[in-house]
Write a structure and sequence with these properties.
There is one protein chain. The chain is elongated. It has helices at residues 33-43, 57-64, 85-91, 93-96, 115-120, 178-184, 195-204, 224-235, and strands spanning 2-7, 27-28, 31-32, 48-53, 73-78, 101-105, 108-110, 128-134, 142-146, 152-157, 166-174, 209-213, 218-220, 241-242, 245-246, 251-253, 256-258, 263-265, 268-270, 273-275, 280-282, 285-286, 290-292, 297-299, 302-304, 307-308, 313-315, 320-321, 324-325, 330-331. The chain folds into 2 domains: 2-234, Spore Coat Polysaccharide Biosynthesis Protein SpsA, Chain A (Alpha-Beta Complex); 238-331, UDP N-Acetylglucosamine Acyltransferase, domain 1 (3 Solenoid), CATH 2.160.10. β2 (27-28) and β3 form a beta hairpin. It is built from 8 helices and 30 strands. With 355 residues, the chain is of the alpha/beta class.
């Protein structure tokens, strides 16, 4: 069995951060989301992985390399434009050959791995297997409609009027018959080859598409609130590890990881939290469910339930929470304009200011 990992999407819901970075490399507990998926694939016993890359392909290649750090052999497959999930299968035909494969969306986060799912896949009985989970707003996902006996009777991609609340999780399992399906379908109204249309083609042509309802934690990390929630879930499981330097004037409560080279002085850290390598926390409060990346500086500031990416500075500002701060960002107070806000903000940003 092989794996096809999709890391070519543009991440429009995370702009402006995704204007310069791959959404699949955004950190959860200071580790890129994509890495969790690659590790899950390895742990399931799969070693041959094709990664679909797009505009941010160079960044993904630099981060993942040849896959040896994960115990994988990586083949990169360029996609000229985000033309749909089924299009990814279409262009990966040579790599996939006639092997069964798992397709894993690189920005998805699934707690518990995929070992049991891979082990339970029975290609002699199924042409494909999809995972389903109830969601509050299914209009943002592929949606499945089940019959009385649990069989799939209909599939739709991001429907305006969903037939159920069952979203298709971004982990699929296929036999080679899916290649017939992706060649047979036509682009949707969105101009994409939809994987839901390919699955529907399989059903309409007498192939068994098996559904598996998951009860564990799953997130599509396409929005800031989803990134923060995934960060919270992972931080819940960390154990204290102090690799940096902490002075006597610092108070640490709860589970906190401080990576080598980090310096913490005159501060309060309340875990779970992670402080990256070579980061400085000076005279500040870092609250629960916060990840501070490598090479950052937080001084005379308060921050909690947030993600701060590498090489960023937060200095001299009061409470920051529920925030996602990108790489190389500087957050400081306005100096000479009391009672005003001084902003330099990119396209598609969201800013919430206290009145």
């Amino acid at each position: 069995m092989k794996a096809l990992v999709l890391a070519g999407g543009r991440g429009t819901r995370l702009r402006p951060l995704t204007n310069t970075s791959a959404k699949q490399l955004f950190p959860v507990a200071n580790k890129p989301v994509l890495f969790y998926g690659l590790e899950a694939i390895r742990d399931a016993g799969i070693t041959e992985v094709g990664i679909i890359v797009g505009d941010t392909g160079a960044e993904v290649r630099a981060a993942v390399g040849d896959g040896s750090r994960f115990g994988l052999r990586i083949t990169y497959i360029p996609q000229e434009a985000p033309l749909g999930l089924a299009h990814c299968v279409l262009i990966a035909r040579e790599f996939l050959a006639d092997d069964d494969f798992i397709m894993y969306l690189g920005d998805n986060f699934l707690v518990g791995g995929i070992q049991e799912l891979v082990a339970s896949f029975r290609p002699q009985d199924y042409a494909a297997q999809i995972l389903l989970t109830p969601v509050d707003d299914p209009r943002s996902y592929g949606v499945a409609e089940l019959g009385r006996s649990g069989q799939i009777v209909g599939l739709a991609e991001k429907p305006d009027d969903p037939a159920s609340d069952l979203a298709i999780v971004g982990v699929y399992m296929f036999t080679p018959v899916v290649h017939d399906a992706v060649r047979a379908i036509r682009p949707s109204a969105r101009g994409e080859l939809e994987i839901t249309d390919a699955l529907q083609w399989l059903i309409d042509n007498g192939h068994h598409v098996h559904s598996h309802l998951i009860t564990g934690y799953w997130k599509d990390t396409g929005r800031v609130r989803d990134m923060l929630e995934c960060n919270r879930i992972v931080l819940e499981s960390i154990e204290t590890r102090i690799g940096g330097t902490v002075d006597e004037g610092t108070e640490i409560t709860g589970r906190v990881v401080i990576e080598p080279g980090a310096v913490v002085e005159r501060s309060v850290l309340r875990g779970p939290a992670v402080i990256g390598a070579d980061t400085k926390i000076i005279g500040s409060y870092v609250g629960p469910f916060t990840s501070i990346g490598d090479g950052c500086e937080v001084s005379d500031a308060e921050i909690e339930y947030s993600i701060v990416m590498n090489a960023s500075t937060v200095r001299g500002v009061s409470r920051i929470e529920s925030s996602l701060i990108g790489k190389g960002v500087e957050v400081t107070p306005a100096r000479t304009t009391p009672n005003t806000h001084q902003l330099v903000i990119g396209d598609h940003s969201t800013v919430r200011l206290r009145a």
